[in-house]
Specification:
Glutaredoxin, five-stranded mixed β-sheet, about 40% helix, about 20% strand, binds nickel (II) ion
């Protein structure tokens, strides 16, 4: 009896270990109902600071689709990789890309000043707009988007552990797609292109 029980337990553990992997390899987009935590409405009004220090709100982008990504300039992996993907994706979209405004919102407002952020986003693509703000403004927009962020001390400095998904928002401010960082730029561009075309004038 006992060896069978152990074998079953080992099998269950193996299945559980394989579960996150199978999700990453899943080719289909993440279903929104599953992706949106607890049915929270994603998005909404925000007030932030643009590269020139000017006030930027959701109303600054009227009629535009938004590609919203949260991170910080000292990020060593997810942020630079994702920004490279966003730049590629914009190229992949061609003329359609003009209807899309990519936003890189800093989760590290203490270190990411508008100047630091502008220099950083420009390095990846001129079309990506870096936004920062007061710690309160950043907390508000991160909460509105259900973004997870945690400070991780590293020696005398810190890193941030944070949500790596990219939010595709319609001009009406609705979440249309949550693009996982595992997706390729070409794959994400196809999905975004289809969403834009479906909404008309595509
Ligand atoms: Ni990052």
């Amino acid at each position: 009896m006992k060896p069978t029980w152990i074998a079953s337990a080992v099998l269950i553990l193996l299945l559980l270990a394989a579960l996150p992997l199978s999700f990453q390899l899943w080719p289909a987009p993440v279903p929104l109902a599953a992706a949106v935590d607890g049915g929270q409405r994603i998005g909404g009004p925000f007030e932030l600071q643009g590269p020139d220090g000017r006030r930027v709100t959701e109303q600054s982008f009227e009629g535009q689709w938004l590609l919203v990504f949260f991170g910080f300039t000292r990020c060593a992996d997810v942020c630079p990789t994702t920004l490279v993907q966003i730049a590629k994706l914009l190229d992949g979209l061609g003329e359609q890309g003009a209807r899309l405004q990519p936003l890189f919102i800093s989760l590290d407002p203490e270190r990411d000043t508008p100047e630091v952020l502008a220099a950083y986003t420009r390095f990846f693509d001129e079309r990506i707009l870096g936004l920062t703000g007061s710690p309160e403004q950043i907390r508000q927009v991160a909460d509105a988007y259900g973004v997870y962020v945690r400070k991780v001390p590293m020696g005398d400095t810190y890193m941030l552990d944070h949500t790596g998904s990219v939010y595709l928002m319609s001009p009406a401010g609705e979440l249309v797609s949550l693009i996982s960082p595992q997706r390729t730029a070409a794959d994400a561009a196809r999905e975004i292109s289809a969403a834009l075309a479906q909404a008309g004038n595509g």
